[in-house]
Design brief:
About 35% of the residues lie in helices and about 10% in strands. The chain has two domains: about 60 residues, no CATH class; about 110 residues, no CATH class. By secondary structure, the chain is an alpha+beta fold.
Amino acid sequence: MSADADADVVVAGAGHNSLIAAAYLTRAGHRCRVLDARAVPGGGVASEELLLPGHRVDTCSTGHTLIQTNPLLARDELGLLADHGLEYIEPDPVGHVVFPDGESLTMWLDIERTCDEIARFSRADADSYRRLIAEYDAVKDVFARQRFTPIGFGPSFAEMIAVRPSRTSSPESAGSFSLSSPLSRAYLLSALVSADRKPDR
């Protein structure tokens, strides 16, 4: 008899997405076995003492923002917040980028403070960033809704975004923002990758 004979479902990998899936399956009454190549569960959001004893850092994750709109947390479906004490810490500054020439840019939770940082290099880039964030804020609920609407169970992303009276009628509109400073462009890329805007729950 195999070691997995007592499981209804074998989940490959112990990253946070796999652990969430296993938790939902277990809650639904299925017996799950989670297997991972590493001894430490959590995948990209594991906390480990990698540098010094007593100092825990996240192994891979630089941000865990997109999951904030997931029903897992928005409705606390597994009781992670209420029953298990999960708490997210929002650092301020959010991020800091140091360039090879010694210059740096810091991203803050306050958009005006961030724009002041960008303006040290280019006032026009700061204005473009402010417009980009304003336009994203106007449609970010659509991005959240489409993420949790299975295909065929509601309007498509194109249909949802088309009803918005904005030049953000397509995701490519972000490319229309012109940034003159290479540092601003690098910073903006970093900001977009790390999803610096706190999602609405």
